[in-house]
Amino acid sequence: MSKTSNINRVDGFAKVTGSATYSAEYKTDGVVYACLVGSTIAKGRIKSIDTKKAEWAPGVLVVISHLNVDKPSGYAKAKDPHNFGQPLQVFKDDTVLYYDQPIAMVIADTFERMQYAASLIKAEYIKEEHITDLQKAKDKEKKVETDKGDDYHRGVQDNYKNAAVVLEEEYTIPTEVHNPMELANIIAKWDGNKPTVYTKSQGVEGTRRSIGGVFGIPPEDVSVNSEYLGGAFGMGLHTWPYEIAALIGSKKLNRPVKLVLHREQMFTNVGFRPYTIQKMGLGATKDGKLTGLTHEAVAMTSSYEDFMEGTVNMSRFIYNCDNVSTRYRIVKLDTCTPIWMRGPGEATGSFALESAMDELAHKLDMDPIEFRKLNYAEKDLEQNKPWSSKYLLECYEGGMERIGWKNRKNKPGSVKEGEWLVGYGMGTGTFGCYRSPTSVKAKFLADGNLVLQCSVNDMGPGTATMMTAIGAEITGLPSENVVIEMGKSGLPKGPTQGGSATTSSVGSAVHDACNLLVSKILGLAVETSTFKGMAITDLAFANGVVTSKKDNLKSVSLASLLSANKLENFEVENVSKATEEAKKYSIYSFSVHFVKVLVNPNLGKIRLAHVVSCADIGTVINQKTSAGQMYGGAVGGIGMGLMEALEIDHRFGRPINNNFADYHVPVNADIEKQEVFFVNKKDPISNPMGTKGLGETALVGMAPAIANAVFNATGKRVRDLPITLDKILEPRVANA
Amino acid sequence: MKNFQIIRALSSKSAVISIAKEKEAMFIAGGTNLVDLMKKNVVAPDKLVDITALDLKKIEFLTGKTSIGALAKNSQVAEDKAIIEKHPLLAMALTAGASQQIRHMATVGGNMLQRTRCSYFYNTDMPCNKRVPKSGCGAIGGSNRMHAIFGASDSCIAVHPSDMCVALAALDATVQVEGPKGKREIKFTDFHRLPGNTPEKDNTLQNKELITSVEIPNNNFTKNVHYLKVRDRSSYAFALVSVAAALDIQNNTINDVRLAMGGVAHKPWRLTEVEEFLKGKTVSETIFRQAADLAMKGARGYGDNDFKLTLGPNAIVEALTIASSK
């Protein structure tokens, strides 16, 4: 992948010049404007809802609530394939299941009139007691009713308790919210019984199925356009009530309806990373050999859907330990349903596991990396399979060198720079490499351009750029000649973008389709052109021209080959999927984040002096987009470590900091120096390119790296994220 | 947002007249806070009087004092070379506030009049005595990490969010205002008020007076000054605690001193008693510590903000130490 390994982001120009069209920006004749009015209680029933003033307000076309909604025909049976339970059916009845749940929708001829009318809607409620505090409800835990929800045991159950050195601690992570810059937005319209939506989706095909299910129509009748996304981080993995509401409104008025959530609604209505309490039990011999590892998680879900994620999974395979137990429980709370947020459960889990590993290393008076190396897993003990490839040790080495690990002392608080306490910390991340069946059409046009089509989305990681690079590499075309068509229905079916699987799935499909296309062209060349009778292996194809490897002077252009065969273009559509061979291996990406912090304990100030993120993601298809993704994931992990927390006033069941002034994410000034590093070694098993996936593992392991560095600097162990200054603040001690 | 009228005033007199008669009328300048409040339905004026055309943007260095027009932009003041030279504390405080984009829009007068950032004030579904008198205080017994440790009442524990005002309070500034009854001067430390039973009133302006300028008397605080802002991230966050420290040190003796805190009260919290204690003392960490302890007299926490009882004195010592070692 040499020539194309550093091409610029193909959609970069469109994005920075504003010519990229996001969902709500599609020019739609006759479009009208909708917004959702949310409940002001967290649980209960709507006693009355006064929509009259809003209906009479200027420009208002309709106000829809449970009182007058035309219920979609699929409400009776619709199920979300991701979750167990029933997704919220907007306006179905008078029940309120969470604060800010949509109870009415106003549609008006202009945005401003719609906003004003919405402010006139008043509801009265019959309140019921709500529970939004996981800490107070954790005893109501239950198993998720699926085999994935089962407890896991290998060897002796909870064997850590029998060890010579035991660590037992509890870690908590608060609710975090995805909040991409681009708000959740949709334009919905109907043509007879066939809807078309322009919406913020990470999965075109999944959105078609969800909408089809709700309205009782075949998914093929649903058109979904989601060509550009301004980030999503997982919130686009679900079809949300706002999308269904817009479709209900559009159907009612028989007009296109545009609905964009307010920023506040992004905190309450489109999922979040669930508040999770984790218990870790680690046991080791005195010389540092792990003999038992137990990882338990209790996470929140909504009252109407069971959501679970892979919080405890990493503990089953990342270290060489014969006795491992994991348990996962959920507690139903009166909130919206959580949804995977970047890194998802693995990021939550790694905070507990990698903090606990650091704590145990400290107890053993061992260097945390030496301790990990001593417990390095030569194979995946969970699946009892060999790794397809594993360059975790290279990540350790690369990070240690860059961060200056040799300057670290095991004893906390023993390194200083001026008045600042210096601390070094690291955390390991991992994420599975998945590959799902993907269809790609590759088409050579007479003008020399290669068109690649797939319905997969690009929410920002650079999917289009990756497809371009692989297509250009295999066909020998300049990348400028590759045209990507993606992110909408009607194209060959691609996967949902999530779980770091896109490059493995779609990249492989591009790879295979382009190879087939080249073979097809060469096959035609040896049948119909000046190369008639030659072997395909004697021909080469590059820059849109077929040449003979034996005779440089002989060449046939694609255009002449097309015209000779009376064809408009060459095209191949092909479905690619994982090989049987791959099932024999355990395929994971690995990452290690290193952090150097400077701490002023008098002010609780933590400076991130240096951050280094190293990853083994197999082959790196594109250095620029991969580095961008790694920087972004690392910053997401820094937010998790130091700032992010959706604060709820449990008296009201409402968020307090539902805006960007109060819900903090890192700014440039928070990170003084940041580096990323890839091992960039091909995985021989994963897929034809040898990639393993990056998006999730880019975040996994950063939060514990920070917590461990803060401990190394101050001796203070923070087990409840985020590490805000009040948690490490020390009364000032007079200088001697 | 409800429909409203907007008119542009061409003189301060006409501005004052056009607002005086109407109950629900307000001035608007940079709009960096007011527009947010209107969007959130926290305030809903019928009429806005745009004062940005008024001739109140000048920074003037007069005999014995500096006069800063109420419409001078925060960035304009912060970057003014003579301000940096004569009143570096003010420039530092301004630069610590908001973001450059907001500082380009925000005016000096508007900065003084910005409302608290208390979440309960902003969320119209929540109780808040400042927004709706007698509706209760959500922050007491609720989420109050940002809130006051000094001078709060049972009605309100909100804090004033400005950085600039902390420096102006420290520098003995005065506020020049013009109203229907004419012009008057208000001491900066009397401009903002404590909540008491009427937290809906942030300040002592009367009858919709217009701020026309702020005046700072000449001083010797040009070297040993520091504005320390402690916050949850390095930029674009309100102060948890801030300290404006200005020292006039001669031969290691504190000749004169000004000290004020932000993020701790309903108004910029000037520490005159501590200043008196420090005057004439020799610079030392012990003295700064004693000063910090004295400063915390009467402080109390409300739960989430208890850490400010530790952070506050630490920040004072830090600010005095940095200022004195310049």
TrEMBL record, chain A:
Q: Enumerate the SUPFAM superfamilies for this protein.
A: CO dehydrogenase molybdoprotein N-domain-like, Molybdenum cofactor-binding domain
Q: Which Pfam families match?
A: Ald_Xan_dh_C, MoCoBD_1, MoCoBD_2
User: What keywords does the record list, in alphabetical order?
Assistant: Molybdenum, Oxidoreductase
Keyword hit for Oxidoreductase:
yes
Alphabetical list of InterPro entries matching this protein? Ald_Oxase/Xan_DH_a/b, Ald_Oxase/Xan_DH_a/b_sf, Ald_Oxase/xanthine_DH-like, AldOxase/xan_DH_MoCoBD1, AldOxase/xan_DH_MoCoBD2, AldOxase/xan_DH_Mopterin-bd_sf
According to the record, the segments passing through the membrane are none
Range of residues in the leader sequence? none
Query: Which SMART domains does this entry report, sorted A to Z?
Result: Ald_Xan_dh_C (SM01008)
Report the residue ranges that make up the Aldehyde oxidase/xanthine dehydrogenase a/b hammerhead domain in this protein.
17-129
Origin: domain of life = Bacteria
Instruction: Please give one Gene Ontology molecular function term for this protein.
Output: oxidoreductase activity
Q: What is this protein called?
A: Xanthine dehydrogenase YagR molybdenum-binding subunit
Q: Which species is this record about?
A: Flavobacterium saccharophilum
Species lineage = Bacteria, Pseudomonadati, Bacteroidota, Flavobacteriia, Flavobacteriales
TrEMBL record, chain B:
Protein's UniProt name: Xanthine dehydrogenase YagS FAD-binding subunit
SMART domains in the record, alphabetically? Answer: CO_deh_flav_C (SM01092)
SUPFAM superfamilies the UniProt entry points to: CO dehydrogenase flavoprotein C-terminal domain-like, FAD-binding/transporter-associated domain-like
Q: Which PANTHER family match?
A: XANTHINE DEHYDROGENASE FAD-BINDING SUBUNIT XDHB-RELATED, XANTHINE DEHYDROGENASE SUBUNIT C-RELATED
GO molecular function: any one?
Answer: FAD binding
Keywords annotated in UniProt:
FAD, Flavoprotein
Question: Which intervals hold domain FAD-binding PCMH-type?
Answer: 1-221
Give the source's domain of life in one word. Answer: Bacteria
- Organism, per UniProt? Flavobacterium saccharophilum
